[in-house]
Automatic annotation (TrEMBL), chain A:
Protein name: alpha-1,2-Mannosidase
Pfam family, one: Glyco_hydro_47
Region of interest (Disordered), ranges: 522-550
Molecular function GO labels: calcium ion binding; mannosyl-oligosaccharide 1,2-alpha-mannosidase activity
Main location: endoplasmic reticulum
Comp. bias intervals (Basic and acidic residues): 522-543
Residues involved in Ca(2+) binding: T475
Required co-factors: Ca(2+)
From TrEMBL, chain B:
Pfam families in the cross-refs: Thioredoxin, TXNDC11_2nd
Region of interest: Disordered: 824-843
Location of the Thioredoxin domain: 1-130, 563-686
Residue ranges of coiled coil: 709-799
Lineage: Eukaryota, Metazoa, Chordata, Craniata, Vertebrata
Entries under InterPro entries matching the protein: Thioredoxin-like_sf, Thioredoxin_dom-contain_11, Thioredoxin_domain, TXNDC11_thioredoxin
Stated name of the protein: TXD11 protein
Superkingdom of origin organism: Eukaryota
Organism, scientific name: Nyctibius bracteatus
Sorted UniProt keywords: Coiled coil
Length: 575, 867
């Protein structure tokens, strides 16, 4: 999710950081079961009022108790909340909604839709619902997970977005008409995240359906951004997709850029793709060099690296979660603790928070119940089991219930200074905020499966091991099972190869040769051997010069002092 | 629409505390009223909260608990400092909630920053209520000085004046110190008795004394520093002695542990601590060890001043009598500890390898206290009586089978004033022998280390033999003395205390057992060396075990073994296809098993590991389970010996059967895919080696073939299910096909009907065309007629004009005739008649034309309709 970045004002150079002394150590033993039930009650309060008062509109208006279309006209809240239902364990409602969607949703409509939002909410939501439908007890087709009604709907929606990618650079337009394609006179300016946030959904679609077009356009767009980064390795906020000129040159990790970085990492994890990871690691270096100050991340000019806004944005709070996925847990925790102080000050995260002034920024005081900080809390709790992280969850439940709960749902906080409410409940509240909160308080949820249980599914292409954990969340919190990507069409060849190997292993022949080792002796000559690295073009141009000693697709192990890095304690790495 | 602009102001504030609560709740943020309330009370506690704040909600209960205990002496005021119409929000600017401010009359605010737990808050409030302790007698002085926390004493003569000079400043400095040092470690005392003051060589009223145990105690330098509250406080803070420190992380981001642990190796001692309790026997014992440890200058024994108070008249501070110290510590322990006796219960089961051991203590603090002062001597009769009472209740203790210490208090049968405490636990028999032989110097016994391979004779050089179940090293008694050890060793320890009620999580992280109820734990953490050692948890945490622990750390060849934290929550599942390995099972699973072992190092949080789950599951299902084990270890929760550590995740190691020591690492630049892993395993597995076949080999071959058979059977089964899946898919396709055919048929029919319709339509349109043409023709004819009519009318018009001319000429003729004949009347009538007839003719003509046009138009429009 993202918001459009605003004009930048001059800012104070002098800024001293407060480190507010936290008030008291963790009260031992937060009752997570009771908080889990409160989150469940929150979900149903909002969900039932949506169905009652707003369906089939996109969103509920909680103050006037009615509905409105916002991002299109696809009953968006329902699509977005679908997999949350399953995570809460409500199988029957999941099944009901699946049939409602199959009948009711039509993408042949004359609507101008955001390419980005349609992808993450609609395509992502349908894909994850499709992959979870067997678990939810929906009777699936024989070809599942490679075919199915929800998959066809996702594919249909995604095809409606493809015309946007028909540009000289391969970077998509921001808006497309679902019936007529790109409108004549459409603005060619798209934000960075609107270009680089497709690979998770589109690669999944390509792997499941066998049509490579989706993954191809997503990759092309990612590479175009990579090519247009500045000399110091940063990307700006908005770019012209025709001329590839940067229109807004603020570089940071928040609004307008956020999910681009997120998808480089998640794409690398989902696809075991070194190229994407090497891109991210290069960006990560530049981000640390130029934007990081005292565990905060600021906004800088993308060519010069000078600070343009000393601001923390609500949307940036996903970053610690992303860091923990790649093993940078220490830094993640330090930044998370910074962000948590802002929550403690207001009972929510303002869209913009001026770090040196320690207060909200004019016109950016709202909190639309965004999930990012809670999302990071979920990842960090997985990594550290630190009760401080649970305390954020507790604070979020208390704040949201006390401040934004109204008779008809949960209302966006228009102004965190006085807690005035706005007549809107964004669909990500049910898709993400509630989901991550629930998962934080439910350590035994199937989403947290560490691979100890799995499901073996027989498809016409052979047997698949599915639901073995490791779910990759798209940026709208729709989980994708990475195992499903190895289940359909040509990806099955891997398994057939493995079966051949076993056959050879058992054969009475004496001279069996398994040739992996020999290839390894060549060191760098891996790409030819590597079935997944078909594209030999590698991310970093500098790659050949500095041969990294470890695989890009790995995390560092945690240091010794991480044992004691809980309850707010952080350690400085001065080795 | 207008609904878009609908907003709603925040809900009005409501009561945060219940109306029956002893806390006054100013939920509209009436700070002015709060200030007004303060005028009437000596001690006030302000609780500034935000109603939405989780921490405020959590602290509310604690504050209420404190308030219910202290409400008669302290005014508790809660102020909603969030409500934006309230005074508080307008005047104060807090970055977090709740904020607790204390006032002692006009002095304040003193912010409380300690743990949000009722006992700690109450303790602090009590400190604010009485910042100074009154030292009225020698025994109180002794108590004050023996405390491990630094203390400042002031001597003020009250007989001279009711408010001796400097007293108020001293009092304020005590309050001031609470502002700076919110843990309240520096205690302030005031002496009013001249003789008591002399014991610590204070002579002049107004002089201050900072007591130190190891270093020389100090007198406040009046001549160097001004006598102000701030200065006194600063002086005490700068010069205090910190032999052992409490660590109380506040929960926010902090470098406390980082800063402390980077000073060097640290001994962290976790004990449950109740700040309100009057005595802390365990704490006293620990601080005694700490004092001894830091007591470097033997000539200045730890408590010379106490010795001095003990009775000798000699005012010498540097008492160097060697046995003085001994004598002292005896008195010390007698005054501080209750009398205890260890009782080993007879075995309740003769074959049992365990014993129940009880520590029986006379406890005067529980129940009715006849005398607050400690009984100075341990009365033999009392112990006897206690033992009698205890044995009468013996049976209750027989049932105890627990590794944890369980205590019970019971009333003496002989004295209604005495209670006894019996703490019992079950210990292994050999543990008892160690206890009994504690005083004999024994050699390190040979421990039967389990080992593998052929390295048996080099056990001590293999660092991974770190059997922590062996607690002998901790009992290792060396000749070293703890006294002043900190100065004699080059591995000096910093000593820290942590309250296990609040910070047990750190102990768990360092490997404290999760099952124990007794939350006592000690560990030495060496951040630089990245190791930590743990005091054997089968031993109770007492002074002597702690001493040995410290000694064993300090000596040159330390017998302490690096502690490896193990994830005890992992349960062994037979059904799992992947074997979950922990620190404890590592050796057995990997080295002792008769299989090829593939071991994956992973962490739950690492995205690159989790997405490989399905590949390893597939691998484990593919490989014959009799020859291969696919295992994994969560490296974040399980420490391993150094040589098996890794710095990246995932890491994949293969330990081939019979060559376990030659483990191979899966090359990192290969993608982790099923075929690659299989190639890797099969290449390195001993099974694929082609050696000349012996008898053993034949056996192996049969086993392999059996594996093959079961593999094939599995494969057949899989193929069968695949066939059925394909059948289903086929059926589905068939159904879809027939559906499609039906659809096609339907479409065909539709096409036919459409064609028919098309034809009729065509026919119709032809007809229409014909009528159209006909009408068109008619129209043309009509137009022609019209033209004719127009011509006719033109002719008529012409005729008309001709007629007019004719008439005019006739008129002219007639006029000329009249002029001649002069008959005017008859001529006029004639001309009028003529005029009328002409005009009537023209009108009829025009009417005719209009009629014609009308008919044409009607025909045209009807033609349109039919078309």
């Amino acid at each position: 999710a993202m918001a459009v970045l605003r004009a930048l004002g001059p800012w104070l150079c002098l800024w001293a950081l407060r480190l507010p002394a936290g008030t008291g150590a963790a009260a031992p033993g937060l009752d997570i079961a009771s908080y889990r039930e409160r989150v469940r009650a929150m979900f149903y309060h909002a969900y039932e009022h949506y169905l009652e008062s707003a369906f089939p509109y996109d969103e509920l208006r909680p103050l006037t108790c009615d509905g409105q279309d916002t991002w299109g006209s696809f009953s968006l809240t329902l699509i977005d909340a679908l997999d949350t239902l399953l995570i809460l364990g409500n199988v029957s409602e999941f099944q009901r909604v699946v049939s409602v969607l199959q009948e009711g949703v039509d993408f042949d409509i004359d609507v101008n839709a955001s390419v980005f939002e349609t992808n993450i909410r609609v395509v992502g939501g349908l894909l994850s619902a499709h992959l979870l439908s067997k678990k939810a007890g929906v009777e699936v087709e024989v070809g599942w997970p490679c075919s199915g009604p929800l998959l066809r709907m996702a594919e249909e929606a995604a095809r409606k977005l493809l015309p946007a990618f028909q540009t000289p650079t391969g970077m998509p337009y921001g808006t497309v008409n679902l019936l007529h394609g790109v409108n004549p006179g459409e603005t060619p300016v798209t934000c960075t995240a609107g270009i680089g946030t497709f690979i998770v959904e589109f690669a999944t679609l390509s792997h499941l359906t066998g049509d490579p077009v989706f993954e191809d356009v997503a990759r092309k767009a990612l590479k175009a951004l990579w090519k247009n980064r500045s000399d110091i390795g940063l990307v700006g906020n908005h770019i012209d997709v025709i001329t590839a000129k940067w229109v807004a040159q603020d570089a940071g990790i928040g609004a307008g850029v956020d999910s681009y970085f997120e998808y480089l990492v998640k794409g690398a994890i989902l696809l075991q793709d070194k190229e994407l990871m090497s891109m991210f690691l290069e960006y990560n270096k530049a981000i640390k060099n130029y934007t990081k100050f005292d565990d905060w991340y600021l906004w800088v000019q993308m060519y010069k690296g000078t600070v343009s806004m000393p601001v923390f944005q609500s949307l940036e709070a996903y970053w610690p979660g992303l860091q923990s996925l790649i093993g940078d847990v220490d830094n993640a925790m330090r930044t998370f603790l910074n962000y948590y102080t802002v929550w403690k000050q207001f009972g929510g995260l303002p869209e913009f928070y001026n770090i040196p002034q320690g207060y909200t920024v004019d016109k950016r005081e709202g909190y639309p119940l965004r999930p990012e900080l809670i999302e990071s809390a979920m990842y960090l709790y997985r990594a550290t089991r630190d009760p401080t992280v649970l305390e954020l969850g507790r604070d979020a439940v208390e704040s949201i219930e006390k401040i934004s709960k109204v008779d008809c749902g949960f209302a966006t906080i228009k102004d965190l200074r006085d807690h005035r409410l706005d007549n809107r409940m964004e669909s990500f509240f049910l898709a993400e905020t509630v989901k991550y909160l629930y998962l934080l308080f439910d350590p035994d949820n199937f989403i947290h499966n560490d691979g100890s249980v799995f499901d073996a599914v027989v498809t016409p292409y052979g047997e698949c091991v599915l639901d073995a954990g490791g779910y990759v969340f798209n940026t709208e919190a729709h989980p994708i099972d990475p195992a499903a990507l190895h289940c359909c069409r040509k990806w099955k060849e891997e398994q057939w190869e493995a079966e051949d190997l076993m056959r050879e292993f058992y054969s009475p022949k004496k001279n069996k040769k398994f040739t992996l080792k020999r290839a390894a002796d060549y060191g760098e000559g891996e790409s030819a051997k590597d079935p997944e690295d078909a594209s030999s073009e590698k991310g970093g141009e500098k790659r050949s010069s500095k041969k990294s000693l470890h695989s890009l697709l790995s995390c560092p192990t945690q240091s010794f002092n991480s044992k004691l890095a809980v309850l707010g304690q952080v350690f400085l790495d001065d080795t | 629409s207008r609904a878009k602009d609908v907003t709603m102001p925040a809900k009005l504030p409501v009561n945060f505390f219940s109306t029956r609560s002893p806390v006054i709740d100013l939920f509209r943020g009436q700070l002015d009223y709060a200030d007004h309330l303060r005028q009437d009370s000596e001690i006030v506690l302000y609780f500034f909260y935000a109603p939405w704040c989780g921490q405020s909600i959590a602290a509310r209960e604690e504050i209420e608990r404190v308030a219910s205990r202290l409400s008669d002496q302290v005014l508790f005021v809660a102020v909603n400092c969030w409500w934006n119409q309230g005074k508080c929000r307008k005047q104060k600017h807090f970055f977090y909630f709740p904020v607790i401010h204390l006032y002692h009359r006009s002095f304040g605010p003193i912010e409380y920053k300690g743990p949000m737990s009722a006992v700690y808050i109450e303790k602090f409030v009590r400190r604010v209520m009485t910042p100074l302790l009154y030292i009225s007698s020698r025994s109180k002085l002794l108590d004050f000085l023996s405390n491990y926390e630094p203390g400042v004493l002031g001597y003020f003569e009250f007989n001279a004046s009711p408010q001796p000079p400097g007293y108020l400043t001293f009092f304020t400095s005590a309050l001031h110190s609470l502002k700076k040092d919110y843990l309240g470690t520096i205690r302030f005392g005031v002496i009013t008795n001249k003789h008591v003051a002399e014991e610590i060589s204070l002579v002049h009223s107004g002089s201050l004394y900072l007591h130190r145990h190891v270093n020389t105690s100090l007198i406040y330098p009046n001549d160097v520093m001004n006598y102000t509250a701030e200065n006194i406080c600063k002086w005490a803070l700068e010069n205090r002695e910190m032999l052992i420190r409490w660590l109380r992380p506040h929960g926010g981001k902090s470098l406390l542990l980082n800063n402390e642990l980077k000073k060097g190796p640290a001994l962290l001692i976790f004990i449950p601590y109740n700040p309100l309790a009057e005595i802390h026997p365990l704490l006293d014992e620990i601080t005694k060890v700490a004092l001894e440890y830091h007591n470097c200058n033997k000539s200045q024994a730890a408590e010379p001043d106490l010795q001095h108070l003990g009775g000798t008249d000699s005012p010498a501070f540097d008492s160097s009598v060697p046995d003085a110290h001994m004598k002292l510590s005896e008195t010390f322990s007698i005054t501080k500890y209750p009398c205890c006796n260890t009782v080993v219960l007879p075995q309740w089961h003769s074959i049992s390898r365990t014993h129940n051991v009880c520590e029986l203590c006379i406890n005067q603090t529980l129940g009715v206290k006849p005398n607050k002062v400690h009984v100075p001597h341990c009365n033999f009769l009392e112990i006897e009586a206690a033992l009698d009472s205890f044995y009468l209740q013996e049976h209750t203790f027989f049932q105890v089978i627990s590794n944890t210490l369980e205590c019970s208090n019971f009333l003496s049968f002989y004295s209604p004033f005495s209670y006894y405490t019996a703490c019992c636990r079950t210990v292994n028999r050999h543990f008892l022998t160690f206890i009994s032989s504690e005083k004999t110097i024994f050699q390190t016994p040979k421990v039967a280390f389990s080992s593998h391979g052929k390295k048996d004779n080099t056990q001590h050089s293999i660092p991974h033999i770190e059997d922590r179940n062996c607690f002998i090293p901790d009992l290792h008694i060396s000749g070293t003395n703890i006294t002043g050890l900190s100065c004699r060793t080059n591995k000096t320890l910093n000593l820290y205390l942590l309250d296990s009620n609040l910070f047990w999580i750190y102990a768990e992280r360092l490997g404290a057992s999760r099952s124990t109820h007794l939350k006592e734990f000690a560990a030495i953490v060496d951040l630089k060396e990245e190791v930590h050692y743990v005091l054997d948890q089968n031993q109770s945490l007492v002074g002597s075990t702690l001493e040995n622990f410290i000694k064993n750390f300090s000596i040159l060849y330390s017998p302490l073994k690096r502690h490896l934290v193990d994830d005890s929550s992992v349960h062994f599942h037979e059904q799992r296809v992947i074997t979950e390995v922990t620190t404890n099972t590592f050796h057995d699973t990997v080295f002792l098993s008769e299989k090829n072992v593939l071991l994956l190092y992973y962490a739950q949080w690492c995205g690159f590991c989790a997405s490989l789950n399905h590949i390893f599951i597939q691998l484990a299902r593919l490989l014959p389970p009799d020859n291969f084990t696919v295992a994994r270890i969560d490296i974040t929760r399980n420490d391993l010996p150094w040589e098996f550590m890794t710095d990246r995740l995932p890491t994949i190691l293969f330990f081939p059967h019979q060559r376990k020591e030659q483990s191979v690492k899966f090359p990192e630049h290969f993608s982790v895919s099923l075929p690659n892993l299989l190639k890797f395993i099969l290449h390195h597995s001993s099974l694929s080696s082609s050696e000349p076949c012996t008898k053993e080999c034949l056996h192996k071959e049969t086993a392999l073939q059996q594996g093959h058979i079961s593999h094939l059977e599995r494969e057949i089964q899989k193929l069968r299910s695949e066939i059925s899946a394909l059948h289903q898919a086929h059926d589905q396709l068939e159904a879809q096909l027939s559906e499609a055919r039906r659809e096609e048929h339907r479409l065909q029919q539709q096409k036919h009907t459409l064609e028919k319709q098309h034809k009729t339509l065509q026919l119709h349109s032809e007809q229409l065309q014909a009528t159209y043409d006909q009408k068109n023709q008619e129209l043309l004819e009509m137009a022609e007629k019209l033209q004719e009519l127009a011509d006719a009318s033109e002719n008529l018009l012409k005729e008309n004009t001709l007629l007019r001319i004719l008439v005019a000429s006739r008129d002219g003729k007639l006029q000329s005739k009249d002029e001649i004949k002069e008959s005017l009347q008859s001529e006029q009538t004639l001309s009028e008649e003529n005029d009328i007839s002409v005009s009537t003719a023209t009108a009829t003509l025009e009417e005719k034309t209009i009629d014609n046009i009308d008919t044409i138009e009607t025909e045209h429009s009807s033609g349109n309709r039919t078309e």
